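Researcher: Structure for this, please.
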Amino acid sequence: MTTLVTGATGFIGSHVARQLVAAGSRVRVLVRPGSNLRALEGLSVERVEGDLQDLASLDRALRGVRRVFHVAADYRLWLRHPEEIYKTNVEGTRRLFEVAAQAKVDRIVYTSSVATIAGVGSPGAALPSEQTSATLDQMIGHYKRSKFLAELEALKAALAGVPVVIVNPTAPVGPGDWKPTPTGRIIVDFLNGRMPAYVDTGLNVVPVEDVARGHLLAAERGRIGERYILGGRNMTLKEILDSLAVITGRAAPRLRLPHAVALAAGYANEFFARLAGREPQIPLEGVKMSRHRMFVRSDKAEKELGYQPGAAEPALRAAVCWYEEHGYVRGRAHTKSTREARAA
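Model: Predicted structure, token format:
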């Protein structure tokens, strides 16, 4: 049985592809021409060049495929041309479902985002879950809106009989985050001493390997048309930074920045970045999103899929070691975490 993975050059997608290969699956990956293939090094997979916008390439990629992991997404919090993210995340997802339905695949696991669920609950209410309802108006920024609309496409396809299961990863950390992701940038900025202050926000941190394993479990045990949060531990940003301080031996920032100040800095940084024709260092959408703690619970995946997330601290330690070993930390000696890993 051939399994297609889209987004296999990305953080989560590369781990999904590796776990599939390790399980003995024949894996095909859809890669765009000119894509950076570092995440696939040493991995025995069949590569098909193409794009979610190219129907002919989707036909080629899906020929003989029985199972699909649609992990590909445009995950940017700042875009010069916002329409690009909707073409990939919404139109591209719809197109893939249409071609996959024609190919009569047995199962599609669609990678949504916790962004469609978290941060929309009322203060003091229970933690958001798969049952939490949200509206497009509650989605902050183009990334969250595009993923919300793409998830609606997945639900619509499932209602039409396409065998789609939805997974909603939280904030994965660990090795192989080449880009890096926005969560990874927090770690890299900390390691490079570029985080003098923090804001009162929070994330649900989970080892990336467990998120990938959750995808495979969803393919085996997930119910069509259902969504499953693949999360780990709810941590405030201060708790994450304190954990990184313990791991690295470096001091965590003590200054808590009011959201109003962070928002003003975001507007100013984006204004000057546009004038300079470059990406802002402080994405305004990220600042706006930080007003809400992205806390959730993932007991549905644990109960129905057998999903068992690991601890956050070892995943943060693995991420630190990986970033240091791959040159993301410049002009500094390796932290005690890397030295201890080498000694072991």
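Researcher: Any notable elements?
Model: The first helix runs from residue 11 to 22. The mean pLDDT is 88.
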